[in-house]
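Working notes for the structural subgroup meeting. M.R. asked for a predicted model of this chain before we commit to crystallization trials. I am recording the input and output together here so anyone reviewing the notebook later can reproduce the run.

Input as submitted:
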Amino acid sequence: MRATAPSLPSEDFVNLVRLLPRRQAALLFQLRTGHIPLAVHLHRINCAESAQCLGCGGGEETVEHFLLQCPRYEAEQRRFLGPWGGPARDMGALLNSMEALKPLFQFIGATWRFHARLGALELKTDPAKTQEDERKARKKRANERTKELNDT
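Returned structure, recorded in token form:
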């Protein structure tokens, strides 16, 4: 999993999850570390007999298999991750990019794979847009303070 989370827990990761609801932040952390209730992890902690994907039977159910390779979720992959473009096929970009979070959580929600454990995963706002709005507000406040200092 180091390839998908080389800087965990870094300032970049904190900034990535800062605007997320707790449920999505926890899920993203689990995806990045591989400590998530997929067959590979469950088998490693002796909670599953096999690491094989129960959805397709075509290999070990890793995070990468679940998100990008499992034929059981091919329609959801095309619908939510396909329009996002080429980087959706890159685990690093998918799990480390603010722009990828909304389609990522839409995909996971549509699979119902973790619904019993986490409930609905839809984001009400786009984290990338929220982050940009926050940046603009900080800049505006800084400009106002500078103006106040110059006026005095």
